[in-house]
Amino acid sequence: TDDPMRTRRKVSIHAPTGRAASNQELAAITTAMPSSARAMPSRRWPGSSSRSGVVLRFGATVGDSDLTRFWLKAAANKRPVGVGRPDQWSHLVHTDDLGSAVLAAMHAPKGAYNVGAEPVLRGELVDGYAKAVGADAGTFMGPVLRRLAGPRIEPLTRSLRVSSDHFSAQTGWRPTRPTFDPAWFDAAELPAAATR
Predict the structure, then answer these.
(1) How far apart are the C-alpha atoms of 30 and 159, rounded to whole Å?
(2) What percentage of the chain reaches a pLDDT higher than 70?
(3) What's the pLDDT at 87?
(4) In the predicted model, what is the mean pLDDT of the chain?
């Protein structure tokens, strides 16, 4: 589907060295924007004379969410939960931090902001799912399963060290859960019957 917001997306991505990625590097990793989206005029926000507003780009939501419960169930049934490689980075946000970020955005200057905790290695995330369900270790999807999933899974395999520092500097917002640990899954309350 055409997503007109894709025309305004800017990403604060950091290379493994910790330096911010350049615009050329960002262009190389972003998908091509549909021509219909490039041609769309900016829309005004209701009650505002501005042609733009605040866009929040949340990390993958972990906590009290259906997707978290889905992956916990998969880990409990010893199915792969990892996409990409263990040495790649993921950007996460806990469900406890979503509301406060939206409230902080009410006072943010116009722009696009990343919202989430510190980046986490995918290997740590997958092991967290495993520990949360009492398994020894989590597993990653192999090349055959990734091929069967098709091209839609490719964006999930990208290693991105995304920072929320700009949003924090503009609004004072800080995540209450700044670093990932397996306790993030406690909010998901996976029922015992879900492991069948």
Answers:
(1) 12
(2) 70
(3) 94
(4) 77
- pTM for the model stands at 0.69
Whole-number pLDDT of residue 192: 55
Residue 165 CB-half CA count within 13 A: 10
The Cα-based distances of 166 to 53, 102, 111, 156, 174 in angstroms read: 16, 15, 10, 23, 11
| Ranges of H-type helices in 20-179 | 23-29, 35-39, 66-76, 98-105, 122-132, 143-149, 165-171
Read off the tokens for 194. Answer: 């879900």
Unique residue bearing structure tokens 């369900």: 133
CA neighbours closer than 13 Å in the CB half-sphere of residue 87: 1
Higher-confidence residue: 95 or 36? 95
DSSP state of 140: B
Q: Is 135 helix (H, G, I), strand (E, B) or coil?
A: coil
